Amino acid sequence: MTAAFCSRCAAPMASAMLGGKQRPQCPACGFVAWRNPAPVGMALIEHEDRLVLIRRSTAPLADYWAPPAGYVECGESVPAAVCREAHEECGLLIELDGLVGVYSQADVDVLIVAYRAHSTGGELAAGDDASDARLFAVNELPLQPPPKDGSATDLWLYQVVADTIAHWRGAIRPDHNPRSTTQ
Ligand SMILES: [Zn+2]
Fold first, then answer.
1. Residue 25 CA to ligand 1 centre (angstroms)
2. What pLDDT digit, counting tens, does each position of 100-112 carry?
């Protein structure tokens, strides 16, 4: 989605060939509206030997169980954003244990950086963007059908959630649940 008017000088935007692609550019001040995927941090949190999932209350993937996740803001690092979002969405204080993976797709305008983490305090409670927050043991993870009539972002996020949860299960029980995917 491109704005009709320049966000810097409010002149009508035009199109220009830049770096081999047509891009929105302001003919008055030269401002180029670059489009980049927004970074989102995600946490696969172990709490009391189980995985913390929240029930998403908003799109994409509304009503699905997913790890806490949210947009990285300017002024914070990705790890700091993950810890902040985890606290806002599920009430727990966490410490990160390592990268699970970086997920992106050409037709989706976010990029997800997922970490393994464990709780260090707080109380499990559903917060921002979550209608519920629960603990799932490795053998009772939710079975969720793929979204019907979902957007590209819904379908992609569904796959990212399935992949990161499978990774967590593999990391916890390598003998019983070998990882089926590699990053
Ligand atoms: Zn301008």
1. 8
2. 999 999 999 999 9
Taking a 5 Å cut-off on Cβ, the residues next to ion ligand 1 are: 6, 8-9, 11, 26, 28-29, 31
**Average pLDDT in the 131-153 region?**
92
pLDDT more than 90, % of the chain: 79
CA–centroid distance, residue 35 to ligand 1 (Å): 16
Distance of alpha carbon 71 from alpha carbon 66, whole angstroms: 15
- The class level of CATH for 38-172 reads alpha beta
Beta strands in the chain (DSSP E): 14-18, 21-25, 38-47, 50-56, 65-66, 69-71, 92-103, 110-122, 130-136
Tell me the mean pLDDT in the region 33-48.
95
Centre of ligand 1 to C-alpha 19, Å, is 19
Using an 8 Å Cβ cutoff, are 128 and 88 in contact?
yes
pLDDT grade, residue 175 (50/70/90)?
very low
> Could you tell me the distance, in angstroms and rounded to a whole number, from the CA of residue 24 to the centre of ligand 1?
11
Q: How far is the CA of 137 from the centre of ligand 1 (A)?
A: 54
Task: Give the predicted TM-score (pTM) of the model.
Answer: 0.85
Ranges of each domain in the chain: 1-35, 38-172
